[in-house]
Design a protein that fits this description.
Layout (H helix, E strand, L loop, with lengths): L3 E7 L3 H12 L4 E4 L11 E2 L2 H7 L18 E2 L5 E2 L11 H12 L18 H7 L4 H11 L13 H17 L4 E2 L7 H12 L3 E3 L6 E5 L2 E7 L2 E10 L8 E14 L12 E5 L10 E7 L10 E8 L5 H4 L1 H7 L4 E12 L8 E3 L10 H15 L5 H12 L3
Parallel strand pairs: 1-2, 1-10, 2-7, 10-16
Antiparallel strand pairs: 3-4, 5-6, 8-9, 9-10, 11-14, 11-15, 12-13, 13-14
Helix pairs in contact: 1-7, 1-10
């Protein structure tokens, strides 16, 4: 291990694994280490129901009605992937259809598609008003389609919001009833997939490796010490748990893993769904998220469903804050509650060359995590991340279209 690397990565959360893969593909010499035996970090998948019970300190063994423990794969922090990055039945009114047609044809470089709207200046609130959309439609569009967590976007230039809605629409058109993807057997395979990509390009992975010290000289990272050996580096990527003195707590998230024996009502007996309860509907500052998956994804036994509820904590009684979502789920066979802190880095890392990821938020999609990855990449390299170039390099290896 007494070598010099371009980049050392600590932690095997999805953010860290993706960045490790990206840096390796870009020709960097990468060493990736984790103190744990497993991949995934705080977003790991628990592959045995018995292990899930132990993690949440549930006394006794799971009941026989839960089936075999090895037939479960429970993600601690579930995230849907936007397919190109059915809800429409509620809003089939003429004015909303006109708005969606406008979004579909929108091209900020083509004045003929703008209908008098200035993408860089016109606030999104004014766009809604132009199409005479009511508050419920605005809540649905901004939080379920554009995936905003607050209403701050309403007074910002409309271009980003319109492009977000367009991404949703294109994803829906590509895959039919749902614009999201969820991997079979849960998300646990994703970090390992990027780890393999890194290894193909020369990256080195070591798990179950204790980290004794992150060495900083003259304000800049120079290496990592583990078991008496020092690996030197020019840049360091890590999750907040490895550098607690360089992050600050900005809030908390409550998550509740629920096991039920029925699909969620009013979802046409769907075997998976995402429900976003907009903040305005429950008189809160934060949306409430529900991610529901089932045996169709090889994460539970036949006839069982896993629904995970999450939101940003706002009061001293967070369990009361998620009641509206739990009421949607009706009878619960098991309920596992966790409250975790949200951490963000104190600085950009441009001087120290230490780049710390953000804690995963309450959302049930990867859009905010992708923003964090792109932000870290830009701060590390000084350039924007090119997804198409990454895709081309991956396809060269795997021979995919």
């Amino acid at each position: 291990m007494n070598e010099e690397y371009d980049v050392i990565v600590l932690g095997t959360g999805l953010t860290e694994c993706i960045l490790s893969g990206i840096m390796s593909v870009n020709g960097k010499k990468v060493l990736h280490m984790d103190r744990n035996l497993y991949y995934g970090g705080e977003s790991a998948s628990i592959m045995l129901l018995e292990d899930l019970y132990k993690r949440f300190k549930i006394p006794g063994a799971p009941p026989a009605s839960m089936g075999r423990g090895r037939d479960w794969n429970v993600d601690l922090i579930p995230k849907f992937l936007m397919a190109n990055g059915h809800l429409m039945g509620l809003f089939e009114k003429h004015r909303f259809r006109k708005f969606l047609v406008f979004v579909a044809s929108f091209d900020e470089k083509d004045p003929r598609t703008l209908e008098g709207i200035d993408p860089g200046k016109t606030a999104m609130r004014k766009v809604y008003k132009k199409f005479n959309l009511g508050q419920d439609v605005m809540d649905f569009t901004g939080h379920a389609l554009a995936l905003y967590r607050t209403d701050d976007y309403l007074d910002q230039p409309c271009v980003e919001t319109i492009n977000r809605i367009k991404l949703y629409s294109e994803s829906l058109a590509r895959y039919g009833k749902n614009p999201y993807l969820y991997p079979l057997y849960g998300l646990g395979e994703l970090p390992q997939g990027f780890a393999r990509l890194s290894a193909i390009y020369g990256g080195t992975y070591i798990v179950n490796k204790p980290i004794e010290e992150i060495i900083v000289q003259n304000g800049k990272v120079v290496g990592v010490k583990s078991e008496g050996e020092i690996a030197r580096c020019k840049q360091l990527i890590c999750d907040p748990s490895y550098m607690k003195d360089r992050v600050e707590k900005v809030g908390q998230v409550i998550r509740v893993i629920c096991i039920v024996s029925h699909p969620i009502k009013n979802t046409s007996d769907a075997n998976s769904c995402q429900i976003i309860i907009p903040q305005n509907q429950v008189n809160c500052k934060s949306d409430i998220y529900v991610c529901m998956i089932s045996s169709a994804h090889n994460v539970a036994v036949q006839g069982k469903y896993i629904a995970i509820v999450s939101t940003t904590v706002e009061t001293k009684e967070p369990k009361k804050e998620i009641r509206p979502a739990l009421e949607l789920l009706e009878l619960l066979e098991q309920k596992l509650v966790s409250i975790s802190d949200l951490f963000v880095p104190k600085d950009l890392g441009t001087e120290s060359q230490i780049f710390i990821s953000r804690t995963y938020d309450a959302t049930t999609h990867f859009e905010t995590a992708c923003d964090d990855i792109k932000d870290i990449y830009k701060r590390m390299t000084g350039s924007e991340f090119d997804f198409e170039e990454m895709k081309r390099k991956k396809n060269d290896i795997y021979g995919e279209d």
